[in-house]
Amino acid sequence: MGEQKQQGAQFMILTQLIFGITGGLLFAMGLRSALVRESLLARIIAVNISGAGVFLAFVAIAYRGLEETPDPVPHALVLTGIVVAVSATALALALRRRLDEADDE
Prior knowledge:
Helix content: over 70%
Number of strands: 0
Largest sheet: none
Strand content: under 5%
Structural class: mainly alpha
């Protein structure tokens, strides 16, 4: 039984590491794209991608082992961040639409 528990712990640590690295890569890709792209829509999408990377990293940080429950604070931050990200994206898209309408006049 102890060997299975140790293998499970190693698997969970590997999973946490994969989530953390993937979150870092998503953040880096989004940041690079936000800095390189000229299109405002592409930049908005890039910022959302980097935000998803940060959320994924927070979920990986919340893990504390098989014996303990995950830390609720990073999960609460992720939920709040998702709401803020959706609101900021809606605002950015509305501003982009206004800018496009102003350019047409």
